[in-house]
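Q: Sequence in, structure out?
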Amino acid sequence: MENINHKNYFNKSCDAPVKEAPKAPVKEAPKAEEPVVEKKKVYTVEELYALDKQEQIDKLTELGLSKSDIKGLKFEEDRVEELYKLLNE
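A: Exactly. Output:
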């Protein structure tokens, strides 16, 4: 019997695809957990004017303004200015 490593053992004219051994998945070293930084959305003045009064008040409350501070912002222009200042700092 011939040596199976002999170069004439396999038919080189064969067009059959050569199967490769499956590769083991490479395990990456665990990365140190990076703090997730939330990207603040940058609002334009037009977007803030498009919000209705209650949405403007809700956003101001979320940003930490007290009810008395919000009551002082009677006009939409005042609320939008304050929102723009707080959101785009």
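The mean pLDDT is 79.
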